[in-house]
């Protein structure tokens, strides 16, 4: 009643309707005067675990004003966070299919770029924007936190070759077979951590993101599973699955057959 601003009569009708839909899920405890979950409870709606965890840790409104976490929690936030004043024009450009002029800091220093963004992504540590870079004449990833300024170029329209349909690395989907590392005594816990009862986890990921993901999850991508570091508890059992993947240069231990 407090959460949705309902009166007692409306709340009673809602509970009654729910019991008609799912008669074995709840029952009224005559002592506490509360509806309690029965042992035969079966959810009517499937909720993605990530959304459930967000609600539990940030509130139903996903950290909007007035919302509080539903349970006590502690989690590590991303250390690399994009500024909202940068994210806003990037998001508008993606939505409206526009060109953006940015200042960007890379290993070679700061430069000005004109990009055509079409998606954002997170590799587990940092947020990226996927875009066509007119300077490099290719589709690349830009770390959002490294963008110092972003301004939509009014009146400019993306060219046909700058359309996401032409980004082969983004559009190519991979199914990477990950298994517990053969040289580490970790098979049981890996199978439990990653819900792999048959011993194989098929990681479905875009080619453009594969290298980042394999790096963040410490996956040994060498052909002979030769990385000795104990942090590497997963092994890519078919390194050839990365053939032709540009981001594979980030995959730990991977060497191109060429």
TrEMBL record:
* Record organism: Pseudomonas wadenswilerensis
| Record domain WYL: where | 85-151
Q: Where is the DNA-binding transcriptional repressor CapW winged helix-turn-helix domain?
A: 1-47
Q: Which residues form the DNA-binding transcriptional repressor CapW C-terminal dimerisation domain?
A: 173-238
Protein name from the UniProt record:
Uncharacterized protein
Q: Which Pfam families match?
A: BrxR_CTD, WHD_BrxR, WYL
